[in-house]
Each structure stands twice: as structure tokens, then as C-alpha cells.
Amino acid sequence: MKRLQNKVTIITGASSGIGRATAKLFAEEEAHVYLCDIQDEMGEELTAEIVKSGGHANYCHLDVRNEDEWIAALNKIFDIHGRIDILVNNAGIGGAPIHLKIEDYPVDQWDKTIAINATGVFLGTKQAARFMKQTGGGSIINISSVYGLVGTTRGASYTASKGAVRIFTKAAAVQYSRDNIRVNSVHPGFIDTPQAAMLLDDQKVRQELINLTPVGRLGTVDDIKYGILYLASDESSYMTGSEFVIDGGITAR
């Protein structure tokens, strides 16, 4: 416990899935956690749950595509605490319709996926870095995917967006290394989350993904949250621009 004591942390997409699990863990590690999402009711319920358990948490409505909302949220947090130590850029969507080939893929769906999954990461990094530079540094953790490393027959826009997160992370890490701002990406494998439910509810697809995973099971949010915690903590002080792959061996094939 106390690996993040008094660190001011922002987590996007914090109302469910990996974001939810990470927010609860960070609060247990005594961070001041700001849960940011557009799923307001879920986010506020989780925030109340964390506070009731003795943690420090606040909820903030944030559409990661909107730079004005980023500026307003971060200005408010910085005014309260005088620092921003950790940003977890976790908000994302799956990029439906996943079954379509590239020549049939709708441009509006492509644009939406890129805006949330990639532009949202850019905007969060851009705005958080401004404050981190003022207070001696920080850690930015961008949630990508194994499909930010390899191709797939499904979801062209999702793969493109997660690949963009991977290489953007490296660019930001190099640019901000002298400012003591570490920027790393996390690449989960097939994780059983609410976002993936539409895909995983198909038992044939579920088994197919399990068969592709050498350890023989889908991942859980708990498998991912501890990797994020390591990157957020001072234990990873020599790690920047890296890809933290937590995929059950998928990319080892």
C-alpha cells in the first residue's frame, strides 16, 4: 500500500472496465484520484464507493475529444492541488463495425474511433504535460492494445488508433524526457470487460480468442491494473517510451 501516496491522478474512461479497476487500486494506494468519463452516473457511483471506503476520489465529466473540457478539468484540478502527477489515458471504444473489411468501412466510424482512441490521448498528454513541467515531472500511461502491435482481420479503425497511441507514446517520451515526464504505453491482450461484451458474448468468438492466447484464458482487469500501477509509481522511474505488453503470450507467437 501507499505506493501512490498523495499523488494527484487523472484516469479517463474510469467508470468501467480497466479504468474502474485502476481507479479503485490507485485509491487503495492512497492517491488522490480523479475519475473522468462521460458515463456520469456510473462514475459518480464509483466515486462515492471509493470515498465510502476511505479513499480520495472525485468525479469529472470529460469527453476526451474536446480540448476545452480537458483544459477546464485540468485547470480545476491544478488549482485545488497545485500539481498533477499521473495521467492514465484509458478512454477508448472498440471501433464498430468490426466485421467489415477496409473497403467497406464507414468514414464516420473511422473518424469517431480515431478521435476517441488516438486524439483523446494526444489532447490529454498535451494538456497534462503543461502542468507536469511546472512541478518537476510526472507519469503518463497510455492504454493501447496488442492490436497496436500486430494486425487483425477485425476493426481496422481500432488497430490504426491503437498503433497511433503506441508510436505517439514514444514521440512524447522523447520530447518530455528532459522534463522528467515519463510516457509509456500498456498493451492488453483479450480482456473480459464490458466494452468487449458485444464481441465476447458470441461463444464461438470467445473460444477463438482463448485459443489464440497461449495461457489459455481471457485476461481480467486485475491482470492489467497492476501493470498500470507499476508505471504510475516511482518504481518505474527509469522506464519511458516503453511498451508494457500484458497479453497472455499472444504476441510471443
Search tags:
253 residues; alpha/beta; Rossmann fold; 7-stranded parallel sheet; 8 helices
Task: Describe the overall structure.
The chain is of the alpha/beta class and 253 residues long. Helix content is 45%, strand content 15%. The chain has eight helices and seven strands, in the order βαβαβαβαβαβαααβ. The protein has helices at residues 17-28, 40-52, 67-81, 107-134, 156-176, 197-200, 203-212, 221-232; strands at 8-12, 32-37, 56-61, 86-89, 138-143, 181-188, 243-246. It has a seven-stranded parallel β-sheet with strand order 3-2-1-4-5-6-7, sandwiched between helices. β5, α5 (156-176) and β6 (181-188) form a beta-alpha-beta unit.
Describe what is shown at a glance:
By secondary structure, the protein is an alpha/beta fold.
